[in-house]
Amino acid sequence: HNYGLVLEKSILFYEAQQSGDLPPTHRINWRGDSALGDSGIYGEDLTGGWYDAGDTVKFNLPMSASVINLAVGLYKWKDAYSASNQLQHMYDSIKWPLDYFLKCWRNSAQIYYAQVGNGDTDHAIWTRPEDMTISRPPYYLNSSKRGSDVAGGTAAALAAGALAFMGEDSSYSTSLLESAESLYAFAKAHQGTYNTYIPEGAKFYSSSEYRDEMCVSAALLYLATNKTRYRSDAITFYNSYSPGRWAYDWDDKTMLCDVLLYEITQETKYKSAVENFVTSYMPGGSVQYTPCGLAWRLEWGSLRYSANAAFIALLAADAGIGNTANYKQWAMSQIHYMLGDNANDFSYVIGYGSNYPLKPHHRASSCDYPPEVCDWNDYNSPDPNPHVLQGALVGGPDQYDNYEDARDNFRTNEVACDYNAGFQSAVAGLLHFAVNGNLPAAPTPAC
Fold this sequence. Notes:
Elements: H1 3-16, E1 58-59, H2 60-76, H3 78-83, H4 87-104, E2 105-106, E3 111-116, H5 119-123, E4 138-141, H6 148-165, H7 170-189, H8 199-202, H9 211-225, H10 228-238, H11 254-265, H12 268-281, E5 288-289, E6 295-296, H13 302-318, H14 324-339, H15 363-366, H16 376-379, H17 417-435
Antiparallel strand pairs: 1-3, 2-3, 3-4, 5-6
Helix pairs in contact: 1-17, 2-4, 2-6, 2-17, 4-6, 6-7, 6-9, 7-9, 9-10, 9-11, 10-11, 11-12, 12-13, 13-14, 13-17, 14-17
């Protein structure tokens, strides 16, 4: 498969998700400026960032998880983006949400904005982002409203961004790092999940734990600063809870901390945890498989879970954990399934290959060019979306490889920033190994 082309298209998907005053580098001609009034309780500018999925809410918990995965992939496997001529596009891509996160953290006031837009209000309409007229309230944390999951996750995203930009733009990297350190201190001082204090976010993205985000944040800050207190913090947070390691996703980032702490300490317990997680997703493990070879964890965004596990497997292989050749081959099998190595030769990445989803659950791409009206009639239309949402990874099939290309099926056919993030970085990892002559032969597809 053409990994470089997949990276190119995935970056285009994130451009389609951009909110705010679009930059000159924007390439999606059916998108325009939107949500220019997004602001904080004191009128602070909160424009920018990414819309979450097929909707137009900015949920920072999954957005920060997406940026962590993308920035770590860029930091580890920059050569993949260089080899595919996508390096500048990738820097531009992650700078957009990072700039937004810098706006969300108001250090002098000790206020962190964790969300813009109300999910219920947003989901009650179907229109172009550019045509939105609904109220978009901000939701925030402060000294009396805790949320070290989303604040810690955002600090981790800023730290990962600082690492990725270190050799590219040292001044910007320094700004990201300063913000990451102060936001981490805020999150550490006010520990707890955000569920109670921002129920409007938890209704859609309920957080089960915060110490995983704090662990990842501390580990990335240690890598970026070499300050030993962050190393100690990461280990302390890691040892203070008992994760299930059911899946690596926007909610549970423990598996990334496993990898990072092994790289930092070289201690066997972290290595063993990574091996146990990866092998649980491989054939013979606890995760069930579809007949055509997809590790299938859950019906809601099934591909996201296997793509994220593939990303962890490739990070592990890069760190010398486990049977590295087997890990790479297994990751390939999962990514290749998504790219069309399945019974129907069907690519779950829109615009890649010749047979891919035509009706993703996504407002902007379902709306024709203005002055055409866009409303629920477009949602209910049997026709393909007027615009091709290049690079978007849809939710995916059921446990029997069945898939319905239907706009109203948000389990199988919605798209999301967090769906593409682990997937894109897994593709970058595969291309990195290929460029360096360390990628095994592709596995034979199960179907």
